[in-house]
Amino acid sequence: MNEMRDLRGFNHKRSVQDYIDETPIWRDGTQVAATPMTAMQWRIWWLAAAGKFFEGLVVFMTGVTLPLMSREFGMDAFQHGLVGAASLAGILVGALLLGGFADQFGRKLMFVAEMVIFIIFLALLAVSPSFGWTVVFLFGIGIALGCDYPTAHLVISESIPSVARGRLVLSAFGFQAVGALTGTLLGYLVLSNIETVSAWRIMYAAAILPAVAVAVARLFVPESASWLLAHGRVEEAQQAAQRLLARSPQYPKSIELAHRHHHAGTAGPGGHDHVHERTPLALLKTPHNRRATILASVPWFLQDLSTYGIGIFTPTILAAAFGHQADVGRNLSDLVSADLLASEGAALVDLLLLVGIGVAVALSDRIGRIPLQIAGFVGCAAGLLVAALSTYYSGDRAVTMVVIGFMLFNFMTNLGPNAQTYLIAGEVFPTRIRGMGAGFAAAFAKIGAVLTAFLFPILLADFGTRTLLFLLIGASLLGAVVTWHYRIETRGRSLDDIGL
After folding, report:
1. Which of 247, 224, 164 lies closest to 16, judged by CA?
2. Rounded to 5 degrees, what angle do the CA atoms 349, 354, 356 make?
3. Could you tell me if residue 235 is inside a domain?
4. How many CA atoms lie within 13 A of 83 on its CB side?
5. Where are the transmembrane segments (predicted)?
């Protein structure tokens, strides 16, 4: 690259994203195909991906730990629902209350704080003395994971080139699927070697040391230069951008930023006061913000109705399909055996989450967010329909149809709504309210997840699998309709220009 030079000039002040997106140019005017990522950009990406990994690990491992918790604490269907919903309810609260703090106090502070909260409650869960405390500690873990929803997205999307934003954000989000699969396999490994009712504690404790390493590493990343600039801290923003874009040879050699946005709490043109933009009312203030709020929130809510119900209770449903629905009266050995069998099936189904996110990563920056989300919703409905039709059969045919249906669902949800709703929520809002907007969307979505996780075991017992799956089919089709009606395509667009 010794022949390269910048033909645009560095004396002209630009936004953070302009510098991040800028590509070198050869002397003859040929532009390099893509901006090379720096070591710091990759470090931020890995640390954000780790947060999604822990979410998948803890939330989806609950399906494996539930039978053992049930035996230890003597849980009924209502208590099963509480355990399944506890971490999701925490995610709702964390995304709503703590997500907005990333706009007020900075991305980095919350990026570190959320992991500290996660570690504390994870350690407490591993030594939980009772059912009640188990629910409380799962809720606390959820608060940390909820904060991570907007924060992890923001630290990535505000640090990387626009052209690669979709695939890099979704690649990090894909670690939720890696965590889900790892949690299921970890549960299987523990159960295979430790046949005791308290084995579920070991499953959760195994994540503590890796989480500590991630928390320490997050202390050494720079603050988001875009956030600093949006708050008028221009000099600090320039220093943060220099750290982010440090490479050898250095490119760009110097950074001079233009303050394009009025930060919260200052007067804009004509003396207009922007302090109200620290409140949720900012999400409804302009036509763009209202449209963005509906697009980011409602399809995600409808998607979570299905994804978390199916994800958490896949082992339970598969156990029923395999003929092991009831655990009353069985000894511990039989209970563990049934849990192992269901875990094997769940691991097979969860593999399709990885395949789906892989395809989403490949296509999101080519096809766009909206087409993939709509196609994914329709595909989810098709997968759930196959699973629902299995209830008209019995034996091996029913089991095969359930597995195929869930595999298709997992592939299509991670290709479409599970991935794209997360991506869209962190892109469609202006910088000054991006954390609050993404946090609100995640919190609103988790209302659906909590309802499903809490009501799923109760409805499963009272109405059966078939009715439940047909209801989720309707929710998926509605998600496709809402996505189309309120569509905002963000593929390839600079975050600095969205919502202005």
Report:
1. 224
2. 90
3. no
4. 29
5. 44-69, 81-102, 109-127, 133-156, 168-190, 202-221, 305-325, 345-363, 370-392, 398-416, 437-461, 467-486
Parent domain of 443:
39-225+283-493
Rounded-to-10 torsion of CA 24, 46, 428, 235: -60
Into how many domains does the chain fold? 1
Please give the Cα distance from 52 to 50 (Å, whole number): 5
Q: Is 463 helix (H, G, I), strand (E, B) or coil?
A: coil
Tokens of 164: 């690669």
pTM above 0.90, yes or no: no
Q: Does some domain include residue 18?
A: no
Per-residue pLDDT 10s for the chain (500 aa) are 444 444 444 445 688 888 888 887 777 877 777 778 899 999 999 999 999 999 889 877 877 788 889 889 988 878 887 887 888 889 888 988 887 788 889 999 999 999 999 999 999 999 999 999 999 999 999 999 999 988 998 999 999 998 889 899 999 988 987 888 888 788 878 887 887 888 899 999 999 999 999 999 999 999 999 999 988 899 999 999 999 999 888 888 888 887 654 444 434 433 344 444 556 677 877 888 999 999 999 999 999 888 776 665 555 555 555 554 444 445 555 555 555 555 555 566 667 778 888 999 999 989 999 999 999 999 999 999 998 898 888 777 887 888 888 889 989 998 999 899 989 999 999 888 888 898 899 889 888 877 877 777 677 666 767 888 898 899 999 999 999 999 999 988 888 777 65
Q: Supply 190's token pair.
A: 């523990």
C-alpha–C-alpha distance, residues 397 and 395, integer Å: 6
CA dist., res. 281 & res. 295, Å (int): 17
How far apart (Å, rounded) are the C-alpha atoms in residues 178 and 439? 23
Residue pair 207/60 in contact (Cβ under 8 Å)? The answer is no
Beta strands in 237-283 (DSSP E): none
402 within a domain of the structure (yes/no) = yes
Q: What does 70-127 look like in DSSP terms, one character per residue?
A: HHHHT--HHHHHHHHHHHHHHHHHIIIIITTHHHHT-HHHHHHHHHHHHHHHHHHHHT
Q: For residue 295, is it within any domain?
A: yes
Phi and psi, residue 25, nearest 5°: -130, 135
